[in-house]
Amino acid sequence: MEESWKPWRERIAEARARGAFTAVDLRDVWHPGSCAVGEQVHRGLLQEYLDISETPYIVEHGVLAGKHLVGGLFTQLVRYNLFDEAERVLDAVEDAALRWKRERLT
After folding, report:
1. Contact of 92 with 57, CB cutoff 8 Å
2. CB atoms within 10 A of CB 100
């Protein structure tokens, strides 16, 4: 990740307004350190990658999900400029990261 790194929530909002993700977004979404799950590690919410297959969005949509498959789903949503779906997956990732952190603090 570079110094100009932005959170995915901000990137999605900007892409929605612009109509598409940027080349930098498309590059960063593939990198483990700057993908949706990697962002949670970067923010300090996670110390490791996690399995979020039980989050409501993933279960509701019947998506096969795990440590890497969720990242792959998010990557494809960004690639095809599916802003609402990308935001829903990001919500699921953030919720899972917060839940994971709370479980470790108790």
Report:
1. yes
2. 18
In a domain, 69, yes or no: yes
- Give dist(CA 74, CA 50) in Å, integer: 15
- Give the model's confidence band at 101: pLDDT under 50 very low, under 70 low, under 90 confident, else very high: confident
Please state, in angstroms and rounded to a whole number, the distance separating the CA atoms of residues 81 and 62. 21
Residue 61: how many other CB atoms lie within 10 Å? 13
For 44, phi then psi, to 5°, come to 85, 5
Residues 6+ apart with CB under 8 A from 4: none
Could you tell me the two tokens for 40? 């949670």
* Helix or strand (DSSP H, E) at 41: helix 36-42
- Establish if 100 belongs to a structural domain: yes
Q: What is the pLDDT of residues 35-54, one digit of tens each?
A: 887 788 777 776 655 555 55
Q: Identify whether 3 is part of a domain.
A: no
